[in-house]
Structure prediction request, 301 residues.
Amino acid sequence: MASKELQTSSKFGRAGLLASAFCVLVVIGFLSGIFVVRQTEQALIVRFGNPIRVISTAGLHFKCPFLIDEAIFFEKRLLAIDLAELEVTLGDRRRLVVDAFGRYRITDPLKFYQTVRDELGLQRRLTAMVLGSLRSVLGSAHLSTILSDSRSKVMDDLCREVNKSARDFGVDVLDMRIKRMDLPRENTEAICKRMISEREREARQLRAGGEEKAQIIRAEADRSKAEKIAEVNKKADILIGEGEAEAGKIYADAYSKSPDFFEFYRSMQAYRKSCTSENTKIVMSPDDGFFKFFNRFATKN
Prediction:
């Protein structure tokens, strides 16, 4: 009896374990078959590598559990593509280095998955298309057009050109823009050298013009200085002449009033100028008129 009871209890125990394991598997399978699609996402259900359906509505969804089905998510929002720099030749034979970027949206997840698999694959394929379209569209445009308000029309043409090819990948290219345009390095260096030469030439012209004006100013200053000095000397000579004339007139008036005193005064002036030191020697005849007043003083003494 005891052995039968043990066998019965062991059977019930194994059955309970199996039931518990089955329940756990059911729960795990149920949970693995549930997935959530967000508002900004869309999903593609793939069964053993083959896509079977697209889910575009947000919410809770179900798929076959235990890795039979796989949910691959794609963005609904705008995505960016940043292109490498490209050197293009414009319609007027000018070369430019163009740095462009674009915005696109995945509109057909199934076609997108079948053609490029993921965003990285699209980046490679779309980059090649955009670069080709850039060469095609910008190759017929002039630099003046790209630098003017008509640039937006060129960008719209570029966007339409790219979008035609991008639809084969299940995406819609909404915008294409040029971030930066620059001249090639060798052109930039040549332009810089030409600008430096032009500035140096202008500097030489300015220096030459300044030196010419400086010489004119110096010549005018020297001429004005000479004229003013001549004018001042002229006035000085006139004043000196007038003073000497006035002095001569005074002397003449004085001489006419007292000739003896004038003669005496002049003689005293001559004696003072002649006898500048104690050892002055004058060799002349004693009867000379120069010693007239000396002789008078000597006779009186």
